[in-house]
Amino acid sequence: MIAANFATSRLQHTGVTIITALQHYRNVTFIYKPDESRMMARVKVKLFANFREVAEKEVEMEADSIDELTSLLVERYPKLGELMFEDGKLRDYVHVMVNGRHINHLHGLKTGLRDGDVVAIFPPVSGGC
Fold first, then answer.
1. Along the chain (129 residues), what's the average pLDDT of each consecutive run of 10 residues?
2. Counting Cβ atoms within 10 Å, is residue 121 exposed (0-12), middle (13-18) or buried (19+)?
3. What is the end-to-end Cα distance of the chain in Å, rounded?
């Protein structure tokens, strides 16, 4: 008789629970089951310069990715969409950071979010003395 160890692990950013059955000298079996108890991440969004003028300085929202978050922001503040997007794509000059890290150095708009993350969105800024 072959003994089996069962382990359950959770992938936070995909909303999937993976149940693995590990058997001696056998292949690993993966069974994918949706995790219905999972809730979206609650994040703080900070907007700067002219983005603040059409929305708010700071807002809390629930989303699992930057893509989802920006869609929700534009839905709530339609004028923000005109400033941030062109032809359905994030304008090159818009800078989005998650906990101080630019999304270009993470996974772009697909960057996952976790509870408590702080997302900062900057328009182009220039000036001097």
1. 39 42 45 55 95 93 96 94 91 94 94 96 75
2. buried
3. 79
The structure tokens listed for 8 are 């359950």
Give me the count of residues in the chain: 129
Cα 96 from Cα 66, distance rounded (Å): 9
What is the Cα–Cα distance from 62 to 39, expressed in whole angstroms? 9
Distances, alpha carbon 90 to alpha carbons 6, 94, 104, in Å: 43, 7, 12
Q: What's the CA gap between 13 and 114, in Å, rounded?
A: 8
Output the pTM of the full model: 0.67
Q: What is the CATH number of domain 41-122?
A: 3.10.20.30
Task: Enumerate the domain spans of the chain.
Answer: 4-34, 41-122
